[in-house]
Amino acid sequence: MRFIDLSTPIDATAWEPEPVEHQVMSAADGAKHMSEEMRTHFGVEFDPSVLPGGELLSIDTLSLTTHTGTHIDAPSHYGSVATYGDGRPRHIDELPLEWFHGPGVVLDLTGAGPGAVDAAFVRQQLDRIGHVVSAGEIVLLRTGASRLSGTPAYFTDFTGLDGSATHYLLDQGVRVIGTDAFSLDAPFRHMIEHYQRTGEAGALWPAHFAGRDREYCQIERLAHLESLPAPTGFDVSCFPVKIAGAGAGWTRAVALLP
Questions:
Q1: How confident is the model at residue 192 (pLDDT cuts 50, 70, 90)?
Q2: What Gene Ontology terms for biological process does this UniProt record contain (predicted)?
Q3: How distant, in Å, are the alpha carbons of 26, 32, 33, 53 from that of 59?
Q4: pTM over 0.85
Q5: CATH for 4-9+66-257?
Q6: Which of 56, 64, 71, 103 qualifies as a cystine partner to 31, CB 3.0-4.6 A?
Q7: Rounded Cα distance, 158 and 169, in Å
């Protein structure tokens, strides 16, 4: 089995609209910290100086959103009320694991440019590779945006899906749609300008808001989709971190090839 990493790192040195804070406690300081914690919480006395080099374990503390790095949006991210089921969208820890492992399909959107593509464009790409999408497949969109990761342009120059394209994939039984871009929707400027020009409310976050009517998940901020040797013939594993009550969770997305 061959593995291809499809994930972007969580990197405090990269540019983010909401910067990541990453504090590292050294192994020496970790020894003192552990000694204090054991005394405070468990009544155990331990002298860290007896450890080799006076070191125990390093500890990393991060402050970031669940939408930093490669992550999966849960239905509850799209709004507080759903039109399906009992009206309560599920959080990331409540979703079936089966959704996050299955046959993958990668579509090439690199020629579309910033903005959004429609259902006709998606069908054309599927026809080009001779593939019919089926239920349970995980569809990945290669926009080329991952080359800009870590820069401000990553958040403004990419291709998303409009409402028709999103609903088309959901109509085929897809539960998980992924992208190497910052968002499955078009960049902010494109959406807002479209709305201001036409007055169409459906121009605003159509891919996300589709999740208020159809239960599905998005993987955002993927990477290395260009490394996949073919549009099909691989599996995707993208289990989300189990954060209770959260609208998203980080994932180490990986492609598995025979």
A1: very high
A2: L-tryptophan catabolic process to kynurenine
A3: 7, 12, 10, 17
A4: yes
A5: 3.50.30.50
A6: 56
A7: 19
